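Predict structure. Chain length: 808.
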Amino acid sequence: MIQRVATVVVGAGIVGAATAYHLALLGHDDILVVDKGEIPHNPGSTSHAPGGVVAMSHNRLLARMSFYSTDLYRRLAPFDDRRHTYNPVGSIELARTRERMADLVREQGEALALGAETALLDPSGVVGLVPYLDAGPIEGGLYIPDSAIISGVNVTAALLRDAQATGRVWVQGRTEIVDVDGATHVEAVVTATGERIETERVVLCTNIWALPMRRRIQPLPLLAYQHQYVETGPVLDGFDPADPDHEVTVPTVRDLDAALYYRHHWDRLGVGSYHHAPLPVRPEAIGETAERPFTPEHFAPAWELAREILPALPPAPDLTRAFNGMFAFSIDGMPIIGQAQLGGLWLAVASWITHAGGVGKSVAELIDSGQSEWDLYQASIDRFHAHQTTRWFVETAGNKNYAEVYEIHHPNEPPSAPRQVRLSPFQPRLDQFEPEYRPFAGIELPAWYGVNRSLLDRYGERIPARNEWASRHWSPICGAEHLAVREGAGLFDLTGLSILEVSGDGAEEFVAYLCASRMDMDPGRVVYTTWLTPGGGIKRDLAVARLAGDRYWMFVGEGTRPQDLAWVRSHVAGRRPIVHDISDAYTALGLWGPDAPAVMEEVLGAPLALSYFRGRWIEIGPVPAYAMRISYVGEAGYEIHFPVDQALVVFDQLWRVANRMGAIMAGSGAMDSLRLEKGYRLWGVDIHTEHDPYSAGLGWTLRPDDGFVGAGAAARRRSEPGATLVCLRLDGDDALGNEPVLADGAVVGYVTSAAFGYSVGAALAFAWVDPAPAGSKQELTVLVEGVEHPARIVQDPVWDPSGSRMRG
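Prediction complete.
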């Protein structure tokens, strides 16, 4: 038994193997990989997985992880002469309906934006690649040639073989880790036999078996689910079961409309099924292996659907192998990667074979330098709110995700469940305005208000129709609210804002260390700024208000609050200031539009003498509120923060006057088009850690000295050529994001967000575009649902470029 190592990787499945492999490549020494079972044939899902690697996804991060993974697996030297480690057969996303085929057209556009090769196929093209299919029920398909089928065990063994060849990695089977010792930082792991292995770092790559270890980690919204897979008896001709070249020769097929997938094993067919009710397995019932007994009652409907498209299948199942395999579902379908609250304890879980190589790469990069090549905010261990880790929420969200795993999802589609989990404190008043709610970090917030449909009589001619897909989860009322705010005033529910307070001795120095802008302003001043990563990427954009000499409020989005709080706390260690998350104690309203100052004067009984980017305490009736002269919509007005238990008092005071003076209630749909007209970037959509502030048009937020996180790296990146965030004016109002931008038929970028600019009468989009050669004049197009729309780069902001309206 090894007594001491630098790093223990727990779990020798494909994620654990990829993690050790990448740590070794990065120069880490003294790495021990352990598993409670044999290695590489362990009891986890890697050993029983059918091996499909699908090199594409509607999610940009998952797609990049899958591209990397399939390329990594392809480069591995074979491990077993009897069965290929990697089979470069491609995959086909199958459509049985026109609606699905339209979604595959959109997916092909997203693949183009990512640089991935794909091909749309008609039914004969599908059957030409996969002869054992019946063309009858098929509408078409999307062929992804970089997809593959692997042997999970062989890839795992090959990764561990190559990791051990570096002399930096050891493996040890039959070693079950049951606990991690350490008060604030990892000191050792404890085996089931009571032995200790001293170490300074542990990486849990145990997927569903991370759950029984939850005593030492924060609650994980992760649940194991059973998934059915069967292999038939011999049904295909022309294959030699003794020849590894015959194991799999045609693309794997995902029959998306039936929630099934198919591959062949020599002369047998394999059928995987999600076409059954969710079968969750609680953490305490996971057991020793990821395989469960087959439940034929759940498979019967799937068999009939499979027979519609696989004519070789007999009427009654004739199976040589059948089982229910367990695998992990997080509440949002994304991996969970990062350092736990116990220092030195890292997790890389909720990952499937398709993404495992990218997950192992990412966690190794975080361990090595604290940064990863790809922005991992969607996969961060710190992304979850407390309500999302409750047993009820995890089971409700998990069941929903399993049931909808292959459904067509619109980018603006709200989740079907869980809903009504967190309510705006204004909801008792908002309900009278017929709101269409959308959850944001679980909070039900209005996207638009049904009572404003009357505004269409005034503004309807300025709101262009959208196609069927683009108009889903949208209403022309959004455009009417947009125009009404530009011409009058609107009251917005800003419950989705969060406040991190920094106070006490050294507050100014600490905030200045985090923020790229100057923080030595007078109390009452508000600054728009950025946080940068050590590598110079944009960690967040935010507003910061100095309330007093030793007190700052940093305003972040509720959606990323847990990650932002973890970021701040990770930097405050050893420093004097106190960091408080006061978000749940406060709520906010936005009163914006050219009439907003007059409304506020009427509410207060006197003009509010507050210049642009200034803030101060005011009294709204019996409520002390902090008002700031800032705007996310590009109009004059105020962001007003006050105690959440007095929310209705403030709302009533403001709305009574605002309504009398012709203002409206306005929702997030209008806010999104208003902010895009004004050139405001949305973090996590338009900008994130992969982008530096200069290429994103935010270089002006950086002060000239180097006293803040990432200053030196940002300065170095300034001179590096690369893509630039630009504003596009395009024909048509149907872009939604992730569409490719083309120049002379070649991809030069992709759209991040898009909306119609109702005030300027044009469709607008932000897009990352590669720089054009010197002296060239690029004629751009944006590919939207297979159709090219002319586009041109315009100076942003397109609305009120001088900013005079916000200052007026």
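Summary: The chain has 19 helices and 42 strands.
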